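Intended use. Records such as the Pentatricopeptide repeat-containing protein entry shown here are meant for training and evaluating sequence-to-structure methods. They are not intended to support clinical decisions.
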Amino acid sequence: MNLYREMISKGIRPDVVNYNTLLIGFFNMGRVGDARKLFDEMQSIDLASNSYIFASFIDGLCKNDCVLDALEFFHTLEISGCELNIKIVSCLIDGLYKSGRIEMTWELFHKLTEKCLVPNVVTYNIMVNGLCKEGKLEKANGLLLDMEEKGCIPDVVTFGKLM
């Protein structure tokens, strides 16, 4: 944060990459309040309308036990007509699953096609991992078949979860 203040004091305007790095850093240190302030500042100067920033914000909230805030933010993006991508949705799916909100996770996963989004290997790995942790190996194998049918190639992580 000191480097950020020094940049500002010297008239150097941080770019999206600088802001995103700071945002992730705040979340990694558990400084959710500072991350929110920084995000608000980014919005005020129109630097927060980037899918990488949105994904980082949702991921950071989820990793700091603010999953419902992340979900609310996601719904705000939907309502505002923001173009969502699979990275943003996958971050939320991961957060929902890890917080034990299994039903909400599956609802969001099934809504992907409504949003014209195709799950990628990361999204499928999150779902397969969740199913395996629940002991639902048959369903996980079924998801693997679905994944392959839809042209998404499983990776070493996918198979590692199923072993």
